[in-house]
């Protein structure tokens, strides 16, 4: 008998943009590396990871997006559901029969319904990856809509009929069990290998290159570090000498970063108000507060609204940029920053922001807005800070950057935080997935 394991077929469904669904991409990558041939179904508004695009074990099946129609919301939702149902069905009947379908939730409609009935006919297993609840997201804008109640019923009915499920927090596992008697395994998000600390040489090269588009990254005219005879190139943060040595500039700006989807479940005005307060403090005590550079990544429906608000500000000590980054540059930029900010609050109170996982993986402490289960990831004072409103965020930023980067009073705090971040960095997605998810897929 052959000692080689037979390749098994799997199907992964994302009824959303594959390129902006990192957790499902990590599932696909791990499946393809562990004996599965994967059919990956979803929209291709953004490019997937290169490892997925180039993998011989992955076939990507692009769904056609719903055309833009001028219709009342209820009719648009109905026609979109029919369109997505037909698109999913046509794609599913064209793929190899899978051992199981791994389906992301949300959205539940029509993904869970179509996947369930397909699995029933094909005698495949349905496994649901619970990231959040569809009904809680819909309830943000339309709490009294009948669609919210329908979505909740769909999640409960079809979720209970799945062969298995994964979820992202212990709180969600308990809620699924108590609400619908749904059995799940907690699979925490963990950073993949590309999210890690980087050398100062890599940081300098990145900031130099990104400085072509981000003016706040460029060398500050008249800085003492820039005018020494043996300095060959500088950014606002780093300097490279003719010997090849790279150093951080002593009196450099602070650098913070936030990644947002620009949706109603992230209140960006909190960060703007906190930056207003930092600007005020820095103007009053410029000897204690450095200039602050804030980078915001991501795209979404509210981006232009906030771009106009930021443009109306007359900040002198704070600068804010919203660059578009290549996939490979984002992890490096995280590792180059001094603090991350997370504005995500969970619509259900049961999911955790993956962006914080990426920041921790890059060795970056985080200020995160409070919600019910955030302490499963962010522990105040250990690996970051938790705030409830913009005043607390402003206070945390002002404390962190007071006499930056040489505040002796903060050195023990920063060392302790780095110790906890190194512990977090030790367990990566691949190892965690093999320990927890692979046995479920192999059942």
Automatic annotation (TrEMBL):
It is a single-pass membrane protein. The keyword Endoplasmic reticulum applies. GO terms for cellular component: endoplasmic reticulum membrane. It catalyses: an N,N'-diacetylchitobiosyl-diphospho-di-trans,poly-cis-dolichol + GDP-alpha-D-mannose = a beta-D-Man-(1->4)-beta-D-GlcNAc-(1->4)-alpha-D-GlcNAc-diphospho-di-trans,poly-cis-dolichol + GDP + H(+). Its main location: endoplasmic reticulum. It is found in: Endoplasmic reticulum membrane. It comes from the Eukaryota. GO terms for molecular function: chitobiosyldiphosphodolichol beta-mannosyltransferase activity. The keyword Ribonucleoprotein does not apply. Signal peptide: none annotated. SUPFAM superfamilies: UDP-Glycosyltransferase/glycogen phosphorylase. InterPro entries: ALG1-like, Glyco_trans_1, Glyco_trans_4-like_N. Residues 246-397 form the Glycosyl transferase family domain. Keywords: Endoplasmic reticulum, Glycosyltransferase, Membrane, Transferase, Transmembrane, Transmembrane helix. Residues 24-183 form the Glycosyltransferase subfamily 4-like N-terminal domain. Pathway: Protein modification; protein glycosylation. PANTHER family: BETA1,4 MANNOSYLTRANSFERASE, CHITOBIOSYLDIPHOSPHODOLICHOL BETA-MANNOSYLTRANSFERASE. This is Beta-1,4-mannosyltransferase. It comes from Anopheles triannulatus.
């Amino acid at each position: 008998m052959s000692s080689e394991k037979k390749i098994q077929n799997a199907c992964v469904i994302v009824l959303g943009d594959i390129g902006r669904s990192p957790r499902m991409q990590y599932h696909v990558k791990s499946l393809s590396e562990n004996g599965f041939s994967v059919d990956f179904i979803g929209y291709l508004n953004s490019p997937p990871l290169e490892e997925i695009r180039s993998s011989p074990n992955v076939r990507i099946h692009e769904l056609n997006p719903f055309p833009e129609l001028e219709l009342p919301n209820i009719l648009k939702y109905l026609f979109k559901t029919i369109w997505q149902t037909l698109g999913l069905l046509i794609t599913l009947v064209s793929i190899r029969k899978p051992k199981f379908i791994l389906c992301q939730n949300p959205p539940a409609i029509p993904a869970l319904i179509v996947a369930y009935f397909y699995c029933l006919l094909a005698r495949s297993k349905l496994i649901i990856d619970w990231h959040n609840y569809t009904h809680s997201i819909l309830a943000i804008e339309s709490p009294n809509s009948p669609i919210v109640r329908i979505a909740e019923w769909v999640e409960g009915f079809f979720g209970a009929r799945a062969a298995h499920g994964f979820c992202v927090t212990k709180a969600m596992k308990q809620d699924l069990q108590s609400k619908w008697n749904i059995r799940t395994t907690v699979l925490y998000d963990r950073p993949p290998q590309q999210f890690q600390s980087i050398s100062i040489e890599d940081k300098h090269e990145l900031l130099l290159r990104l400085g072509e588009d981000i003016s706040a990254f460029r060398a500050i005219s008249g800085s003492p570090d820039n005018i020494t005879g043996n300095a060959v190139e500088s950014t606002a943060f780093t300097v490279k000498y003719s010997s090849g040595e790279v150093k951080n500039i002593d009196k450099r700006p602070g650098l913070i970063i936030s990644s947002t989807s620009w949706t109603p479940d992230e209140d960006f005005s909190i960060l703007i108000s906190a930056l207003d307060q930092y600007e005020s403090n820095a103007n009053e005590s410029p000897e204690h507060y450095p200039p602050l550079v804030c980078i915001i990544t991501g795209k979404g429906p509210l981006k232009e609204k906030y771009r106009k608000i930021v443009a109306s500000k007359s900040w002198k000590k704070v600068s804010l940029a919203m660059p578009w980054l290549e996939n490979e540059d984002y992890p490096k930029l995280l590792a180059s920053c001094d603090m991350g900010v997370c504005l995500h609050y969970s619509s259900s109170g049961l999911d955790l922001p993956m962006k914080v996982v990426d920041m921790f993986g890059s060795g970056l402490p985080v200020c995160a807005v409070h919600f019910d289960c955030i302490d499963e990831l962010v522990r105040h004072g250990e690996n970051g800070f938790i705030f409830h409103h913009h005043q607390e965020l402003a206070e945390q930023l002002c404390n962190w950057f007071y006499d930056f980067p040489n505040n002796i009073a903060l050195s023990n705090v920063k060392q302790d935080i780095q110790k906890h971040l190194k512990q977090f960095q030790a367990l990566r997605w691949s190892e965690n997935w093999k320990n927890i998810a692979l046995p479920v897929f192999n059942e």
